[in-house]
Amino acid sequence: MKQSKKRSLKIVLTSFSLLLLASIVMFSCKKTSTTVQAPYVPGGVTVQPGNINGSIKGTMESNQTYNVTGDVIINAGDSLIIQPGAKIIFQGAYNFFVKGNLFSLGSSSAPVIFTFNNAQKIDNPGEPEASDPAYVGLWGGLWADTSCQNLVIKWTHIDFGGAPISAAQPPIAGASTGDSYNIFFQNPNGNFILEDSWLYGGTDDAIRLKSGHFSVMRNTFEKGGGTGGDLMNVKGGGVGDCAYNLYVGCACNGPKASDKGQPGSQQTNCNFYNNTVVNSGYRMVELGRGGSINYEEGAKGMAYNNLIVNCRFGLRIVGATQSYLGNSLVVADTAHIKYGNTFNYSDSTAGVNQFYPVTPDTSAVGAGGVPTSGLWTRPQSTDIPNMVALMPSNYYPGAPYESSAVDALAGQNNPMFVNFPLPEAATPASIAYASGYDFHLQSGSPAIGKGYTGFQPIASVPQGGQYGANITAPGADIGAYQSNGTGNQH
Amino acid sequence: MSATKKSEKNNIAPKLRIFFITFSLTLIFLTVIVASSFSQVIKGKVTDMQNGEPLVDATVTLKSTSKKYNTNSGLDGSFVFKNIEAGTYTEIVQYVGYDDEQVKAEAKKGITVRNDIRLKVHADKLNAVIVNANMNKGSDISARRIERISSNLLNIISARAIENSPDITVGNVLQRAAGVSLVKNSSGDGENAIIRGMADRYNYTTINGVKIPSPDDKTRSIPLDIFPADLLQRLEVVKSLTPSMEGDAIGGVTNMVLKEAPEHLTYSLNGSLGYNNFFNKNAFTTFNHSGAPWKTPYEIHGSGYAPQPSDFNVKYLEYKTIKYPVNGFINGSIGDRITKNFGFLAAVSYQHIYKGSSSLFYPPSGQPQPIPADNTPVFGPLEYRTYNNLENRLGSHLLLNYNFNEHNKISFYTAFFQLDRIEHRNLQQGLSQYLHLSGQDYVYDRSLFQRQIIWSNNLQGKHQITDKLSADWSLVYSKAQSKTPVWIDQQYSDIVSYNNGTHQVTSEQKNLQDFPFNFTHSNEIDHSGYLNGHYQLTDALKLSLGGMYRHKTRDNVYESYQLYAGNQPFTTIQNASFPRLVRVDTTDGLTYTSIENIFAYYGELNWKYKKWEMLGGLRVENTQHSYVSELSIYLPGKTGSYNYTDYLPSINVKYKLNAKNDIRASYFSGISRPNYFEYIPVNFSGDYFDQRGNPAIKHVQSNNLDLRYEHYFGAEDYFMAGTFYKHIINPIELAFQTQTTSQFVLEPENFGNATNYGAELVFTKHFRNFGIRGNYSYTKSSITTSKLVYTKDNNGNYVIYNSTQTRPLQGQSDHIGNLSLLYKSIKKGIEAEVSWVYTGQRIEIVSPFKNLDYWQKATSQIDFSLNVKASKRITLFAKVTNLTNNPLVLELHTTANGYYFNNIHYPDQTDKNNIIVRHDNFNQTFFVGFRFK
C-alpha cells in the first residue's frame, strides 16, 4: 500500500516535470506565420488619348481628348502633366487618385477641361437645387493621397464633379465612404496650387484641404456645394493664401478655416484677401452657418479687402465656444486673427444686420465681466460702410445692432460691378453662377483704392516657373478685380 | 430652468414611493415574525452525526397527548417551535436517508429550551442513493457541492437561485456572480460580461461546456441577453482553466448548463405578465416590421443591378403607439425516463418584452480646444435619445439520452435561441427637448429590426471501455446568425420655437435630409469534434489525453444604400419623394469572410494524495485564421492568413485543511484571439468614432495565478477569499489613429504588457429563515497608452503633441459588490430576496486626448423578488428590477470650463468636479406570475 503510494508520487512528479520540460522546449521553438496581401501596384502606363483608367503617368497632350472609363491612379513617384487644351471627359462617377504629382497646366487661350460626358449647364436664376445637374455629382473628384507632393492646377475647368466615394476605403488614406469633394488635398508638407481656374458645381465642400500648403488665386467658383459645403474648407494644418477669387452661389462659405485635426505643430493659418463673394450661404440648412468668409475652431490668419455682396452673413469669426440656436460654435484663435477693409453690400435690411454676424443665444460673461460672444466680428473703421459710429453704446461683437440708421444702409454702397445689377431682381440666392455677368469694378466704384496693402501673403508654396505659384500681393482695390488689371483675369 | 427642477421633483416622488413600499414590505415580514413569537419556545438544530453538517428541510414533529406541532429545519439546519403549550413532548426528527430520531422535550413556561439533534445516516446503502437522487441538481446545495468538488475555480449560480432571483435573462443573472460586471444594451439588460475587469474579448461562453458561435457582426462575444434564464440548470463562471478546456480565456468562462433529463416524469410551466413603468410617461412607439426583406437589393437582383428608390420601403418609418404595453413570458419543460435506457427533456421559453429607456448625451466633438486650459472639452449639440425596444426572445432545447448499457451512453441535445429586436430610436439633437429653447433641432428616427439566432447541436458519447479506461466524444454543429432586414436612419432638421407662456414647442420648418437603408448579415458556422480518453493509472492517479478540431466559417455582409432627399420640406414620410440614390456602399469593413481552424490537444493528470488534489498538464492549440475582405486591391491587406501555436500549461492544486476548510492554488496560461474584423484594415462607422482593423494585430497571451481559501460551515453556508494576478502579454485595446484629418479612427493595437490583480470575497450565511449572500471583488489593472494634448506653445501658437497616460483597462471597475438578503420560510412557503449590485466606476469610452476619457459612474441597483407557495404544485412570484430607478451616468473627470454650453444652464451639470456627459434612465420593470411543477 505504502509502496504503491510512493510509486504514484514518483509517477506524478516525473510526469509533471516532463510536461514542464516539454512546454519549455516548445515555448522556445514557437513558430508563427503571418501573410497579409500586399497592395497591387501596377506600373503606371504612359497615357494615350482615348479611354483611360487604372495607373497612368506621362503627359496628356494639347487638344487631345481622354475618356475616363474607370478610376485613374497616379502612382506615388509618378507624375501626370496635362498640356493646354486637353479634355478629360468622365464617362461615369470615377475619380482621379493622385498618389504622385498632378500638373494640370492650361493656358488662358486653351484651358484644360475636366467634365462629364454631355453634361449641360443650366444657368437660370432660381433653378431649384434638385433639378440642377451642377449639384448631382456626375463624376467624383481629384483626390490627393498623403504621398502627393504637388497638386498644381492652372487655367483648368473642373465641372460637374462631387460624386460621393462609394467604397468604404478608397485607395487613398484619409477619405471614406460618402465623402464628396471636387478636390481633396491632405499632405501637411505638400503643395496645392490652384490658379486662374474654374470650378463649377458640387455636392459638399468643393475643395477640402485637410492639411497642407496652398495658394488659391484668381479663380472663379460657381455653385459650390449642394445643400451644404464650403467652397474651400481648410482643416487642421492648412497654411496659405486664398485671394482674388470670385465666389458666386456657394452653399455655405466661400473660404473657411478651421484647425480641426491639426497635425503636430502646424496650426491652420489662412490669409483670405481680395476675394469677391456673391450670393452665398443660402443653401446651407444649419442655422448660423455659412455666408461668406469664416474662421473657427482654432484657426488664425488675416482677412482684408474682401468684397461681400448679398451673402447670408458677413465675415464670420467664432469668438467663443457655445451654442447658436442649437448648433455648436467652437472658438477660433482670435488672438491671432486680423481683419479689416471689408466691403459689405446687401439689398435687404436683414442682410445689413448680419454684416457683423449676430449671436441670437444669450451671450456668456467672459473674463472681467466683459461679454464674449459666439460670433465675434467687430466693425472696423476701415470697413465700407464704416459702421463703428452706428453701433449702440453697449455694443459688443455678436450683439444685435439694428437701428433705423443701420437699416437705411440696405441697397446703399453699390460696389458698381461692370455687369451685375444691384439690387438684384429676385431673392438674393437666385443667381448662383457668373456666366453672363462681369464682376470687374466700374471706375468710380467706392471699392477702388480702399484696400490695405501693408501686409504680406504667407506664400507657403514654391513660386515661379511653370510648376510654381504665381502669387499676387494684396491689392489696392477691394475685391478680386483690380483697376490696374491685376487680380482675377477671368 | 424651473422646468428642469420640476422634473427632478417628479423623479424623486416615485423613488420615495418605491422606497416606502419596500420598507413597508420589510416591516410586514418583521411583524409577522415578531408576532409569532410566544413565551414557550423549543428550538434546536438538526445535523449529520458524522460530519456535523446541518440538514436542511428535515421534518421535525412535536407530539404530546393533546397537541401536535410540525416544522422543518431551515437552511442552517435550525428549527424553532414558538407559541406552544407548556408540557412534555416527544420530538421526532425525520430526514430521508437517515435514521429517525426521537427524543423527549419539555416546554417550560417562559423558557426557551434548546434541543439539538444529530442524525445518523441509514445503514442501508440504498438509502444513500436515494439521498443523492433527492438532491435536486438545480439546488443551491448541489451548486456548492460542485464548486467544492471541482478541481478548478468555479462560481456557480443554481437554477433555484435563478428562479428566486429578479432576473429573466442569463445576462442579468451573471451579474450576481463574484467579480462579474455587465456591459448593458440600450434597454438596460446585461449583454456582455466583464470578468475580473477583463472585457468580453478575454472571456468565452459555452453551453454544456461546448463553445457556441457568435451572431455578433463584430466580435466573438455571445450576447447574453439572448438566453432566457429559465432553461438553465446552473450557470458557472470558471476562473481557472484546465488542460481539457479551450484555452482562449484570460478573465474567465461562462458556462450555461442546460436542464438535464430527469429520472422520472417531471414537468413545469410558468408564466408571467409584467410592465416597465418607463411607459407611464412615454407611450411605446414602434413600427410594423412584417414583410421585412431578408435579402438586400443586390442579393435579389445580382450585383450588376442599379438599385432604385422604389427598392426601399419607407413604411417602416411609420410609427404607431401602444399605451401601457404589457410584457409576458411563458416557460415550460417536460422530461421523463421512458424506458430504462431512454430519457429526454424538452424545454421552451418565450418572452415578449417591451423595454424603454431615455438617454441624455453630450457627444464628444472631434477635438477639444487649447484654451483656456489644455484639452478643454468641446461637445457637439446635446442629444436626447429615446429607445422603444420590443424584444421577442425564444429559447428551446431538447435533450435525448440513450444508454446502451451501463458502460455505453450517448446523448444528443439541440438548443435553439432566437432574439428579435424591434427598435425605434428617436434622437433629438438640439435644445428644445431639454432646454425649452427655440432653435434648430435635428431629429433622427431609427427603425431597426434585428434577428439573432444561435443553434447548437451536440451528439455525445461516453464509454467505459475497461475498468480503468474510459472515453468520451462529441460531434458539434452550431450556427449563429444575425440579420437586420430593417435598419433605417431617417433624419430631418426642425426649426422650432418655444413659447414661454404655454410651454409649447412648435415646429416651424422641417427639412428632410438624405438618409441610409442599411442591411447586415452575419453567419457563423462551427463544425467541431472532441475526443477525450481517460486512464486510471492507479487509484490516486488518472491520466487524460484528448483533442479537438473546429472548422469555423464566418460570412459578414454590410450594405448601405443612401436615398436622396435634398432638404425637401418634410411633413410625413408618405408625402416625401425620393428621386434617386446618392450612394451605394457594399465594401464596408464589416463585409468579409473568415475561416478559422483550431486544432488542440492536451495531456492532463489528476492526482489525489491524502489531503492533496492536483490537476494539471499541458494544452497545445494551433490556430489557423484567414480572411478575405472587400478592400481595394490597390491597398494592403485585402486578404490575410495567420498561423500560430500556443503551449498552455496549467495546474490546479487543492489542499484540504480539514473537513470544512480548503485551500486552492492555480496557475494557467490563457490566450485571447483578436475578433475577426480586427484584422481587416477597412473603415466602418462605430458608435462614436469610425473604426478599422489592423492586419498586424497579434493574439493576446497571459499567465494567471490564483489563490483561494474556502470555508464551508453549513449545507449552503460558505466563505471564500481569494486573490489573483494576471500578467497579460500584448493586450488589445482600441487606439486612435489620426488620418491626417479632422477625424480619428479607432484601431485595435497590442499594448506591450499589462497587469491585472485583485481579490475576491464570497459568502453565504443563513440564520434560520434569513440568509445573507454576498460577494465583493477588488480589481486593479493598468495600461499606458499614447494620448494627444492640444495646447499653446510659448509663442501662442496652437500645437498638438503626443503624451502618455496610464489608466485601467477599458471596462474595469475597481470595486464590484453584490449583496442579497434572503427570507425563506419553508412552512409558510414564502421566499423573498432583495439584491443589491454595485459596480464601481469604469472607463466607457477612451478618448484620443489626455484626461478626456468618458467614465461610467459607479452604479448601484436594487432588485426584489418574492415567491409564495400557493399550493403543493403552484408558486406565485413577483419580480421587480431597478427599484430605485438607478441611472447610468457617464462623466468626464475634468472641470475645464470652456465647453459649448457655457452660456446656458444645462441639465444634470450638478457636479462641481466632473462634467456629466450621459444620463440614461431605464425605470422599474415589474413581473407577476405563477410557476407550476
Q: What average pLDDT do the residues of chain A reach?
A: 91
- Shape label of chain A: globular
Number of helices in the DSSP assignment of chain A: 3
Q: How far from one another are the termini of chain A?
A: 109 Å
Q: Biggest sheet of chain B: strands, sense, closure?
A: 22 strands, antiparallel, barrel
Description:
The complex is a heterodimer of chains A (490) and B (933). Helix content of chain A is 7%, strand content 29%. The relative contact order of chain A is 0.09. Chain A has a 29-stranded parallel β-sheet that branches. Chain A has 490 residues and is mainly beta. Chain A has three helices and 36 strands. Chain A has a domain at 119-137 and 180-441. Chain A has helices at 2-28, 349-352, 404-407, and strands spanning 32-36, 45-46, 50-60, 65-74, 79-82, 87-90, 96-98, 101-105, 112-116, 142-144, 150-154, 156-159, 183-185, 191-195, 198-200, 207-209, 212-217, 220-222, 232-234, 238-243, 246-248, 255-257, 269-273, 276-278, 294-295, 300-304, 307-309, 316-317, 322-324, 327-329, 337-340, 343-345, 364-365, 371-372, 417-419, 438-441. The model of chain A has no long low-confidence stretch (mean pLDDT 91). Chain B is mainly β and 933 residues long. In chain B, the strands form seven sheets. Chain B has a 22-stranded antiparallel barrel. Chain B is globular. In chain B, 8% of the residues lie in helices and 55% in strands. The longest helix of chain B has 34 residues, at 2-35. Chain B contains seven helices and 50 strands. Chain B starts with a helix and ends with a strand. In chain B, a hairpin with a 4-residue loop joins strand 21 and strand 22 (408-429). The interface between A and B is large, with 88 and 100 residues.
